[in-house]
Design a protein that fits this description.
Number of strands: 5
Shape: globular
Radius of gyration: 16 Å
Helix content: 40-55%
Strand content: 5-15%
CATH topology of the domain at 43-132: Transcription Regulator spoIIAA
Largest sheet: 3 strands, parallel
CATH architecture of the domain at 43-132: 2-Layer Sandwich
C-alpha cells in the first residue's frame, strides 16, 4: 500500500473537519445549556490580541458555546486581526442574525476597522452591534 502524501493527509483531515462542522451546524438553534462548560450568560467574549489561524479554532468553539444566546464580543485587546478569525466573526454575525439573536461588538478599535477595510469587509456589522 503506497504511503499517504502530505497533500492527501491534509485533504482527508479537511474533509473530516468539514463533516464535523456540518454536523454541528445542522442542529437546530437552541439556547446553550447553562450546565458544565457553558460560558457565563452575561460575560463578554474577549478576543485575543492576535487573531491568527490557531486562534480561529478556539474562537469558533467559543462562539458555538454561545450560539442561541445574546452575545457581546469585546475586541479591546485585538492588535493583529487575521483573515481566518475575521471569517469566523463574519459567520457568527450571519448565524446570530439568522437565529434572531443579538450579537454585539464592543471596543472595536481603529486598527481592527482598518484591517477590515483593507480586506474589503464593511466594518458596519462590527460597529453597529452586529447588525448590517
Amino acid at each position: 500500500m503506497p504511503k499517504e502524501t502530505v497533500w492527501e493527509r491534509r485533504v482527508r483531515k479537511s474533509r473530516v473537519e468539514k463533516a464535523v462542522q456540518k454536523s454541528r451546524s445542522s442542529r437546530p438553534p437552541v439556547a446553550a445549556d447553562e450546565g458544565e462548560g457553558a460560558p457565563p450568560p452575561n460575560e463578554p467574549l474577549q478576543l485575543p490580541e492576535v487573531l491568527d489561524l490557531p486562534a480561529a479554532t478556539s474562537l469558533a468553539a467559543a462562539l458555538l458555546d454561545r450560539r442561541g444566546r445574546p452575545t457581546v464580543v469585546d475586541a479591546l485587546l485585538t492588535q493583529r486581526p487575521g483573515a481566518q478569525c475575521l471569517q469566523v466573526l463574519l459567520s457568527a454575525i450571519k448565524t446570530w442574525a439568522d437565529d434572531g439573536v443579538p450579537l454585539a461588538f464592543v471596543n472595536c478599535g481603529p486598527l481592527l476597522i482598518e484591517h477590515l477595510r483593507f480586506l474589503g469587509i464593511d466594518p458596519a456589522p462590527f460597529t453597529n452591534g452586529g447588525k448590517a
